[in-house]
Specification:
Alpha-acetolactate decarboxylase, about 240 residues, 6-stranded antiparallel β-sheet, Acetolactate_a_deCO2ase, 7-stranded mixed β-sheet, acetoin biosynthesis, single chain, 60s Ribosomal Protein L30, Chain: A
Length: about 240
Amino acid sequence: MKNTNVLYQHGTLALLVPGLLTGTLTLKELMAHGDTGIGTGEGLNGEVVIVDGKPYQFDSFGKANLLKDDFTLPFANSHFADYQKIGTLSDADSAAFENASLEGKPNCNTFFSILVKGTFSYMKTRAVVKSTKPFDTLAATAKKQSIFEAHDVKGTLLSYYSPKLFHGAAVAGFHNHFIADDLSIGGHILDFQIKQGTLEKQVFDTLEQHFPVNNAEFMEHDFDKDEDIASAISKAE
């Protein structure tokens, strides 16, 4: 039986900061833990969006690629979808989206996911250019990104919310990806405006954190010697 209360996470955003960008989990392994999710490929190779069991990578050329089982990721989230509708949004910016997702509360102390399906009057996304070994830091790699924009596009916003306590393991607050119905645009969201959409929410009571223990670089790395990890994550995201 599929457990819809669990959010599975492979890797941490902290391990990306010093450039530990090797793919340490296959897509097949990730999707054993969910039919919905987000992530990035080895070397920050594009942005991954999984909705309705269909895994797509939006690369730095703006192309949507249907992924195969052997695609590898250094960081990803997945879960089995069981969303409940909590409302609708119209003419809503990111602040209105966050307020509605938090249901009027200033913060939340658990993980949850949000889906917004509808029409977006504006969507701005990014995808990072794939890097190769030896990998640079997250900050340096993230500077090599492509920006995409669209107006009046239909699609799905997939978001994961992490409590402030877990910043470093994930990004505190909302981490948003997008996939257009026609695959014309997608990736990590930088800005958006919702024209009209339904808001669905799924709350998790368990975080299953998976570490790449078979990767020597991760196991031997001293994170105490890195720059301010929390600040680096906030800037990159």
